[in-house]
User: Which sequence fits this backbone?
């Protein structure tokens, strides 16, 4: 699709996503081959903008970088990169080093892959991914890093273990809740006897990542993101992939489990048992909100402004589990083709509320307010006017002013989230649905 | 130190050029020197540190970020970043900060708006000015801004996009002022070049010549000049030049002090309205609180409009606030008033600091961040009885040389390093100061060493002027009341270094260039 300018893009560039990804891998050290400001600036995009996730093991001001200057642009920066890799290996303590590149060195044609290759006999792996900013957004950088791991680091394994899956589509930083989301998936699938490989989850190590070639399946929790890595797994390791939506809440989690049960050969009895058990747990807590929902009229018109990973799952949760009116969905990313766009929009046809939301793909943040205004007839000074109210907006922190202008109550979930501080919280699974319900209802009662 | 000494030999006649010279050639600072205050002074005298670099390096920052840090704050501005999506994507993390700062400073609230031209692979080959044109026209139509600033990034800088011709083409079609800022990251090793880049744009496109006094008598050019001088001398209007790290509390305090001298204070140019900035040339005096930040701006204003300036020091702590105020008094012939004010303020503050001094005496401190801010902050804590173990300026240049003499102990560590927590942490692990005062992005690593920290500056923190001195002392005392978090962090959160690094000599990481050996 044609590329245009973007007003307040909710992302960084490929290098930004790559640094966030490497610094979220276990004891991994990024080595940034670029100008002096890239490492720090791009890190700050996520370290601050993603619920204050911070620099992890090694990013932000700590990131080793070649700091290319005008002189290197003229004469080439490969020598400088070699010096930087060599000194980083000497000083920094990592289990995995990852050379990632910025625009400047890719334009002048530095062969960073070759320079990184000179270190292939080093005791600790030195990997490489091409990640110039002009490649695209932060998601793409994460994909470049993971794809390199899949093709250059993960060991081939002929015997597959059907009870192990690789999960993909979680992008550190771009998903503010990636750690909690991963953890919830791990716990949910453990109930079915499935072991999860997640790259970024708690307890992973470089050594464990090396064995991901054994997995029987890849589960990709996104129509777009993680698909390149999945293809790399398929091509290099012969691991087939299943694409699923983020399973948020009761409906989402059940759909997810039933979708994977066949391919993963989970016995129906076991599947139904786990669903029943989790559902019972879910409602044993959720029932607490029935009183305020009923007494205080906490049904809402819902507007969702989110990235493609969150847009449908959040809408499904408020529609199917909370019984809200899904009114408008503004998705901040563009699928690759009109067909893919149509396919994504079709997901919303499965919702069972009497009205279906209007679905719009719009990258310019400032246009969300216009779309919302245009989605409802204005008040022409009528005595009896059917307002779009009460309204609840789930978006990013940048939608705070839209909420204010439209009188909507508000919860930021999609990146960026700068007015919440996030540690373990995640919204996936039955239990994640409870967490989301807690956050939504907390917002509703926050002025009491 | 007089203003002339600090800026002697510097010229500011660059506004005809599309872009300013970078600090690399204009000021010749260094950002790679590890030694003591004594040896640094020697090295600066010999001019031998400016070409130094490093074997192992961490990020030194990007001038685009500092340039946008200025222009992004203007009222009703749209910033266009001409580049891929990553350049200044840290806007996302800072948008809330700027929004809050606007509110705190009583300025019209509203979202901070920026646009990326989103240069992709094919733009790298074909050029991106068409996208830039579309972005400018979109900004004008959608947001009706007073000013549109274009920040130029590395990619268009390398492929040679001619943004100045585009500005010429569009300028007359817009109601907004259109300001190009050349701040391509790779062009300078010193982020402070970004201040000059932003102010170059501001000086060329946003500041008007002072209005001529309306008079029925026809005047000769000489007469005109004389009248102009009188007009300014009679005026009590001064510009207090703010920076990204001055909080609203700082601005209130410094305005209070200046108002006590009978001055009318414009706090500018950050968070300023386009009309206020246009009239910057009309003030009687430009008062800087940071030479590193402002010399380009005030040098130009002096060359163009003859406006004198104060660039002496950063008003942190008693000594430097008094020194700064005396410079203002001298410039405006208000010496008696100044001395009387200083007497009163000094007596009150000295008394108020007494209880804190008792607690802080004998403790030790390390300060890292911008050169003028860290030396003045360190001087203040030294005056409270703390031992200054070391300073880490991001870069070092002529503006901070006189401050070296303020350190009681000449062998105090001076580690000049933009960022570079690796080197700083080696010093800190060895010297174990009781307290670390650091720039954003540095404090978290230091906590992992078990050293309690306080931030060098902050959006809601008042550290400047007399009240700022009291707040700083109060904060240091509070930080030492409970250091459990640092202790727990050190015990449980690891730093990404090998043990050998902490045993090595960080000075060996500095690559002295051949030029510096000569």
Assistant:
């Amino acid at each position: 699709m044609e590329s245009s300018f973007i007003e307040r893009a909710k992302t960084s560039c490929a290098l930004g996503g790559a640094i966030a990804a490497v610094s979220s891998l276990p004891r991994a050290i990024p080595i940034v081959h670029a100008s002096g400001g890239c490492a720090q600036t791009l890190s700050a995009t996520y370290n601050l903008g993603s619920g204050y996730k911070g620099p992890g093991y090694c990013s932000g001001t700590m990131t080793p970088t070649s700091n290319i200057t005008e002189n290197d642009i003229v004469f080439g920066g490969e020598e400088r990169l070699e010096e930087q890799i060599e000194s980083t290996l000497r000083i920094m303590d990592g289990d995995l080093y990852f050379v990632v590149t910025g625009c400047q060195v890719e334009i002048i044609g530095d062969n960073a892959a070759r320079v990184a290759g000179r270190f292939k006999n080093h005791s600790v792996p030195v990997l490489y991914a091409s990640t110039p900013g002009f490649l695209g957004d932060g998601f793409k950088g994460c994909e470049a890093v993971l794809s390199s791991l899949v093709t250059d680091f993960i060991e081939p394994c002929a015997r597959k273990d059907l009870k192990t899956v690789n999960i993909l589509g979680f992008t550190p930083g771009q998903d503010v809740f990636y750690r909690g989301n991963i953890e919830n998936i791990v716990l949910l699938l453990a109930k079915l006897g499935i072991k999860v490989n997640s790259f970024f989850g708690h307890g992973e190590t470089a050594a464990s990542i090396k064995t991901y070639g054994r997995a029987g399946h890849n589960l990709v929790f996104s129509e777009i993101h993680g698909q390149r890595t999945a293809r790399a797994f398929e091509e290099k390791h012969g691991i087939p992939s299943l694409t699923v939506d983020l399973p948020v809440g009761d409906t989402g989690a059940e759909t997810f489990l039933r979708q994977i049960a066949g391919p993963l050969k989970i016995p129906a009895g076991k599947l139904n048992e786990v669903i029943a058990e989790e559902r019972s747990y879910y409602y044993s807590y959720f029932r607490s909100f029935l009183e305020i929902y009923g007494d205080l009229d906490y049904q809402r018109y819902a507007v969702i402004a989110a990235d493609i990973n969150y847009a449908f799952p959040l809408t499904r949760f408020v529609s199917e589990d909370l019984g809200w009116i899904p009114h408008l969905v503004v998705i901040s990313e563009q699928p690759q083709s009109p067909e893919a766009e149509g396919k994504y929009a079709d997901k919303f046809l499965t919702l069972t509320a009497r009205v279906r939301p209007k679905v719009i793909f719009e990258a310019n943040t400032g246009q969300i307010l216009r779309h919302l205004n245009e989605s409802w007839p204005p008040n022409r000074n009528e005595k009896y006017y059917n307002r779009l109210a009460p309204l609840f907006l789930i978006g990013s922190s940048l939608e705070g002013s839209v909420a204010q202008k439209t009188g909507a109550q508000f919860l930021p979930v999609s990146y960026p989230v700068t007015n919440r501080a996030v540690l373990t919280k995640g919204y996936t699974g039955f239990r994640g649905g409870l967490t989301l319900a807690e956050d939504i209802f907390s917002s509703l009662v926050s002025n009491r | 130190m007089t203003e002339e000494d600090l800026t002697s030999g510097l010229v500011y006649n660059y506004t005809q050029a599309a872009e300013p010279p970078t600090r690399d050639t204009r000021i010749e600072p260094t950002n790679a020197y590890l030694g003591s205050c004594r040896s640094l002074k020697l090295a600066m005298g010999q001019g031998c540190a400016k070409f130094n670099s490093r074997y192992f390096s961490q990020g030194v920052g990007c001038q685009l970020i500092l340039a946008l840090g200025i222009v992004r704050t203007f009222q009703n501005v749209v910033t266009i970043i001409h580049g891929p999506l990553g350049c200044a994507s840290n806007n996302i993390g800072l948008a809330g900060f700027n929004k809050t700062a606007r509110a705190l400073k009583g300025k019209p609230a509203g979202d901070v708006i920026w646009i990326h031209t989103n240069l992709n692979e094919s733009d790298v080959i074909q050029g991106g000015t068409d996208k830039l044109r579309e972005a400018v026209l979109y900004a004008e139509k959608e947001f009706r801004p007073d000013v549109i600033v274009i920040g130029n990034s590395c990619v268009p800088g390398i492929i040679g996009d001619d943004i100045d011709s585009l500005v010429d083409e569009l300028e007359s079609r817009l109601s907004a002022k259109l300001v190009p800022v050349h701040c391509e990251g790779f062009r300078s090793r010193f982020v402070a070049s970004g201040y000059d880049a932003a102010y170059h744009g501001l000086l060329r496109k946003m500041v008007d010549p002072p209005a001529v006094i309306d008079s029925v008598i026809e005047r000769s050019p000489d007469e005109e000049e004389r009248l102009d001088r009188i007009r300014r001398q009679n005026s009590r209007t001064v510009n207090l030049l703010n920076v990204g790290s001055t909080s609203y509390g700082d601005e209130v305090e410094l305005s209070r002090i200046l108002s006590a001298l009978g001055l009318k204070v414009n706090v500018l140019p950050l968070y300023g309205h386009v009309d206020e900035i246009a009239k910057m040339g009309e003030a009687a005096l430009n008062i800087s609180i940071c030479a590193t930040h402002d010399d380009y701006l005030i040098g130009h204003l002096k060359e163009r409009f003859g406006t004198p300036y104060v660039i002496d020091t950063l008003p942190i702590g008693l000594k430097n606030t008094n020194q700064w105020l005396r410079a203002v008094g001298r410039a405006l012939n208000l010496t008696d008033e100044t001395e009387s004010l200083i007497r009163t303020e000094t007596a009150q503050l000295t008394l108020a600091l007494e209880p804190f001094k008792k607690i802080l005496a004998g403790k030790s401190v390390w300060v890292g961040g911008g050169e003028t801010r860290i030396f003045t902050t360190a001087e203040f804590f030294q005056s409270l009885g703390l031992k200054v173990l070391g300073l880490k300026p991001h870069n070092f240049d002529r503006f901070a040389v006189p401050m070296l003499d303020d350190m009681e102990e000449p062998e105090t560590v001076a580690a000049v390093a933009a960022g570079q927590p690796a080197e700083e942490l080696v010093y800190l692990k060895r010297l174990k100061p009781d307290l670390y005062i650091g720039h954003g992005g540095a404090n978290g690593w230091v906590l992992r060493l078990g050293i309690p920290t306080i931030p060098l500056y902050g959006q809601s923190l008042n550290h400047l002027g007399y009240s700022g001195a009291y707040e700083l002392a109060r904060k240091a005392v509070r930080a030492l009341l409970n250091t459990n978090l640092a202790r727990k962090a050190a015990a449980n959160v690891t730093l990404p270094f090998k043990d050998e690094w902490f045993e090595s000599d960080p000075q060996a990481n500095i690559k002295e260039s051949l030029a510096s050996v000569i």
